[in-house]
Amino acid sequence: MGMFKDKKVRNDIILAIAVLVAAAGIWLGTELLKEDGAFAVVTVKGIETARYPLDTDAEIRLESENGGYNILIIKNGKADITDASCPDHVCVDQRAIGKTGEAITCLPNKTVITVEGPEEAEVDFVS
């Protein structure tokens, strides 16, 4: 009976390690496939309000309708919120973003900054 228990624990450990290795491989694969972004796109209440190139350093004050603000810094190909009027500063605590698909969100100011790739020609799939 003791031998069965030890074998079961060993198999559980092997399974846990296999799941962790698979998860790490998937995470690493998705991180390596992300492309460098070209633009920081500012959206307020779901409407795009501005688009800034990531290859040009800038400091922008983003005003929101509720009187709040976010300070967006673009430097070294990354966008970062360094100051905000919101009470929780979750947006300020997020890391700088520079890869396609990454985003910083400020819920109190209803502001989202996303990174998009270079403008691509529209592809016509019909013809």
Search tags:
34% strand, elongated, 2 helices, 3-stranded antiparallel sheet, 4-stranded antiparallel sheet, 7 strands, 127 residues, mini-chromosome maintenance (MCM) complex, domain 2, alpha+beta
Number of strands: 7
Please tell me how large the radius of gyration is: 22 Å
In the CATH hierarchy, the architecture of the largest domain is Sandwich
**Total tally of structural domains:** 2
The helix-strand sequence is HEEEEEHEE
CATH superfamily of the largest domain: N-utilization substance G protein NusG, insert domain
Given the C-alpha coordinates, what overall shape results? Answer: elongated
Q: Given the structure, what is the number of helices? A: 2
**Biggest β-sheet strands, sense, barrel:** 4 strands, antiparallel
Class by helix and strand content? alpha+beta
Residues in helix, %: 25-40%
The residue-averaged pLDDT reads 87
Strand order of the largest sheet: 2-1-7-6
Distance between the termini: 69 Å
Give the low-confidence spans.
120-124
